[in-house]
Design brief:
This protein has 337 residues and is of the alpha/beta class. The protein has one domain (4-330): TIM Barrel (Alpha-Beta Barrel). Helices cover 41% and strands 13% of the residues. It has twelve helices and 13 strands. It is globular, with a radius of gyration of 19 Å. 53% of the residues are buried.
Length: 337
Amino acid sequence: MSARALIVGCAGPKLSVAEKEFLAHAKPWGLILFKRNIESPAQVSALTQEFRGVVGYREAPVLIDQEGGRVQRLGPPLWPDFPPAARLGAAYGRDPARGIEAAKLGARLMAAELSALGITIDCMPVADLRLPEGHGVIGDRAYGMEIETVASLARAAAEGLIAGGVLPVVKHIPGHGRARADSHEALPVVETSRAELERTDFEPFRRLHDLPVAMSAHVVYAAIDPASPATVSRKVVQEIIRGHIGFDGLLMTDDLSMKALSGGFRARAEASLAAGCDIVLHCNGRLEEMTEIAAACPSLSGEAERRAKTALNFLNLPVESVDVAEARARFSAMVAA
């Protein structure tokens, strides 16, 4: 049996007996880690190895959200602190070439930390615009308000991760920046016209359409599909993400346990896959919810399997060497206010 179209979390720093039984049976494509799963470098390395041993394939992805700023699961005192994306945007504003260099170098340093632990996918860069009406859940996680700034720095960060042997996940496609609610807590509804969304919010993603993996937004775009958020909207996935934006990479959902979505967990998974998402993501580590979702997720096949294999092929590219100490000092100087 090939991997299931599913990424799950786990409850703590070690896999429980029940989790091992679930993983061995469900065979999810990947595992995502959060702060609750992290105690030390040796422990994280052991956890990633154990996961791969349980599911039975060496290349099984392990994911994390390591953006910098508010969203970094690895941090001091055991790992370096990284600035939020907005700091890179400020560096770009002072000197675009230097800002791009900093974004790529910072991501390369992140990749060095992650790959040493067996983590192969980082859920960044954020390609959402920081817009005045938007909820603070994006805020300084965005590189800026301007399309050119966001697209340029997001691409540089993606390239930095790939150079270090880690896959980037661009998020939150097709754009979360205008949402007035935090989709972790409520369903955001954006009333902006389709033409304006295509001109602004969607444009950074269109410029990044060739990246290997993207994460969907739990946002309703009323001018396109007033009934369903993008994750479960076939119209948004097909007409906007696959169509207007032209993204043909692996499309994973944002966390299906977020309150923006409604209905049972199996129904959420079924709706996401029916809309055209390739893989569903469930993050909170609750075994009963994961079991319900897994029942709705088939083994990867067809276009979803092709996209998954194409994405993982990026991990076979040569890793660029880096002097971490020198690069860290140079990066710190670049992003200093």
